[in-house]
Task: structure prediction
Amino acid sequence: MRKLNKILKTIIVCLFAIICLGTNITMVANATEGEGSVVAIVEIQNYSVEGGMIEAGKEITVNFTLHNASNYLNASSVIMTLNNSTGIIYPSYGKSNQVYVGNILAGGTKEVSVPLVIGDTFSGTAVDLTCQFEYISQNSRMTNTSTIVIPTSGGSTIGVKSIDVSSHAIVNGKSLLAFSYVNQSSANITDAKLVLDGNVSSASKEIKLDTVYAGKSYTNDYYVIFDEAGNQTINVSLQYTDADGEIVVNDLGSFDITVSKESVNSEDESNIAHIVELVGKVGALVFAVLTLIVIAIYVKKR
Result:
């Protein structure tokens, strides 16, 4: 009987050890998932142009909403430098093309207003503006660049104030597209849509706008889903039927996006769950075998 009690105690100790092992694996998995994070990424979440449309010789103010895409790490001492590929847009008199932004908390945003001047010789349909961000994250100096295209209305029925596509995305994840526009006619537009050409999901290739009422301005956020990882380029156009019954197609420009692969957290979590399940099965098997041995010994003793 003493031997039987000793064996039973051994079985209980083994089971307790197995349970502790499984719990420890789960705790380590959760800690790894919670602590794992990337460096801060500063990007342009949205922007607007005071005064609406742009034209030659006009002084405008571009209001940027900057976003720290990291949910864990702050971006410190952020400096934004603005440049234009053709030199057609430049800082207002007495202003610099460098703007000190300061700190952007993890997952947070910050508003920055920059006064600019459109050159007298401007005659295009859009102005590109490259924004380079320099900042400190985890004691390391980081740089990131984002380019926006500010289109003109061109006298169209729907005047485009601004459009911006987030410069970073994750495969099969939602990436922000911010669109600001105005109906400059006296008629409602019911078939307006954004058409995207690139490696995006079928649902993202056409984004239907709600009814664009006469004289009304809108600023809306939409989401784009990318199918492939890597450096992707998408072309965006606005299509609708104007007040005269003519089909209008406005090219809103091309956007370069860095698309990352899907997070491996779900795969790691699945593997860890499989390990825990396997440990549980082994523990149950050991318990069953030991129980049979105890019963056999007990029967033999009898």
About this structure: The two ends are 11 Å apart (CA to CA). Residues 265-301 form the longest helix (37 residues). The first strand starts at residue 42 and ends at 50.
